[in-house]
């Protein structure tokens, strides 16, 4: 395997001790030692999300499985789901909700902007949704949605708040309980620096009540939390063969984060991101998102006029083993996406990516002049 420094939108490089944990011999998924470890994983997930939600667990699947689990367990046919779309993954939420026979309503902001409380309240009053779904850290744009007051709006109008925290968990301040978030999901391969394979999921007591009062079964057996709860709850009733080694890995990743401390981790991500932003701007590059809304975990950089962004990314990968991402959807071909997540968020990586941009990008600009 080639050696790669993964500075794209994910996955990020895994911490060596996480890889070591993954390589331990597997044990049975009902082994008393493993059952104890399951409880530790749940408590650590509650800590990193800052929630006391009873139903907090890692779904056996990638972040998209956890994303679908929030929809599958909360949406019934005919429910109105309002999706606030400001990037690629808002569209995915809307698509998933429609597949569970929700009446999907959407509001939109340009990719790189966020929603105001006034816009959200106007839409909630208009559509009276059962669920408001929104992305906290939009991976496609590098924008972070301010959350203050959104949960209060949802309580005021009696709807559940569903939040995508895929690119924020572990690297960006998250306070699910104080924000009054009812459903949230994430992944392992970004801020937690664990390989992809598990999807952290959490559900508030309000969302639990809606689940308990469903008129029919959850239409996705594998992701049915009412069944999974019997395995991850006190009964420990077999549901499926759990990926035990992935849970060894996430337990170690969460332990490392708890050892560092959430605030320290958040501060580290912010400091390294700010140094990256300053360095890129000194090189004459323009960032896509205004500074007050930027994600510390993922930066979108506008591709200079005439530069082949995909060719430059491939050049960095082939020559230096550095992966950066391109744009998605509305931003395809317009931006690079540079991730500094979890284990990868350090000053050495900031310096390394700035050095290769400084040394290599002028060659691509010169080729434009030569061609002209």
Report what the structure shows.
By secondary structure, the chain is an alpha/beta fold. The protein has 2 domains: 115 residues, Aspartate Aminotransferase, domain 1; 244 residues, Aspartate Aminotransferase, domain 2 (3-Layer(aba) Sandwich), CATH 3.40.640.10. 44% of the residues lie in helices and 15% in strands. Strands 2-10-9-8-5-3-4 form a 7-stranded mixed β-sheet, sandwiched between helices. Helix 11 runs parallel beside helix 13. The radius of gyration is 21 Å and the shape is globular.
Question: Any chance you could write out the topology, listing elements then pairs?
Answer:
Layout (H helix, E strand, L loop, with lengths): L4 E2 L9 H7 L9 H18 L5 E6 L2 H12 L5 E6 L2 H12 L3 E6 L8 H11 L3 E5 L1 E2 L4 E2 L5 H7 L3 E5 L11 H4 L3 E3 L12 E6 L1 H8 L12 H8 L11 H17 L1 H21 L15 E5 L6 H12 L1 E2 L1 E2 L8 E5 L7 H25 L1
Helix pairs in contact: 1-10, 2-10, 11-13
Low-confidence parts lasting 5 or more residues at pLDDT below 50? Answer: none
**CATH class annotation of the largest domain:** Alpha Beta
Fraction of residues in helix: 40-55%
Radius of gyration: 21 Å
Domains (count): 2
Averaged pLDDT: 96
Give the H and E element order: EHHEHEHEHEEEHEHEEHHHHEHEEEH
- In DSSP terms (H or I, runs of 4 or more residues), the helix count works out at 13
Number of strands: 14
The biggest beta sheet reads: 7 strands, mixed
Estimated share of beta-strand residues: 15-25%
The CATH architecture of the largest domain can be given as 3-Layer(aba) Sandwich
> How far apart are the first and last residues' alpha carbons, in Å?
39 Å
- The general outline is globular
Q: Could you say what the CATH topology of the largest domain is called?
A: Aspartate Aminotransferase, domain 2
Oligomer: single chain
Which structural category do the helix and sheet elements fall into?
alpha/beta
- In CATH, the homologous superfamily of the largest domain goes by the name Type I PLP-dependent aspartate aminotransferase-like (Major domain)
Give the spatial strand order of the biggest sheet: 2-10-9-8-5-3-4
């Amino acid at each position: 395997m080639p050696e790669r420094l993964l500075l794209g939108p994910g996955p990020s490089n895994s911490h060596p001790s996480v890889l070591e944990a993954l390589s331990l011999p597997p044990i049975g998924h009902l082994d008393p030692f493993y059952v104890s470890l399951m409880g530790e994983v749940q408590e650590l997930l509650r800590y990193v999300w800052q929630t006391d939600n009873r139903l907090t667990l890692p779904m056996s699947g990638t972040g998209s499985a956890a994303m679908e689990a929030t929809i599958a367990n909360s949406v019934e046919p005919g429910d109105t789901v309002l999706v606030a779309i400001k990037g690629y993954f808002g569209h995915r939420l809307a698509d998933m909700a429609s597949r569970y026979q929700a009446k999907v309503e959407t509001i939109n902001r340009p990719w790189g902007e966020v929603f105001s409380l006034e816009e959200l309240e106007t839409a909630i009053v208009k559509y009276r949704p059962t669920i408001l779904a929104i992305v906290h850290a939009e991976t496609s744009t590098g924008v972070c949605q301010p959350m203050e007051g959104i949960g209060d709006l949802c309580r005021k109008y009696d709807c559940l708040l569903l939040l995508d925290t895929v690119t924020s968990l572990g690297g960006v301040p998250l306070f699910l309980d104080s924000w009054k978030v009812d459903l949230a999901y994430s992944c392992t391969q970004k801020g937690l620096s664990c390989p992809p394979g598990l999807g952290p999921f959490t559900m508030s007591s309000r969302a639990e009540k809606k689940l308990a009062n469903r008129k029919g079964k959850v239409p996705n057996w594998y992701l049915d939390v009412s069944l999974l709860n019997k395995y991850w709850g006190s009964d420990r009733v077999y549901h499926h063969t759990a990926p035990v080694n992935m849970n060894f890995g996430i337990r170690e990743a969460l332990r490392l984060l708890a050892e560092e401390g959430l605030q320290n981790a958040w501060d580290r991500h912010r400091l390294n991101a700010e140094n990256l932003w300053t360095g890129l701007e000194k090189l004459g590059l323009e960032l896509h998102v205004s500074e007050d809304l930027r994600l510390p975990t993922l930066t979108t950089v506008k591709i200079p006029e005439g530069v082949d962004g995909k060719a430059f990314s491939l050049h960095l990968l082939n020559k230096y083993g550095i992966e950066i991402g391109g744009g998605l959807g509305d931003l395809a071909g317009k931006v690079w996406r540079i991730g500094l997540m979890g284990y990868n968020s350090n000053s050495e990586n900031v310096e390394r990516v700035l050095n290769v941009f400084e040394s290599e990008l002028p060659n691509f600009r010169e080729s434009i002049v030569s061609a002209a």
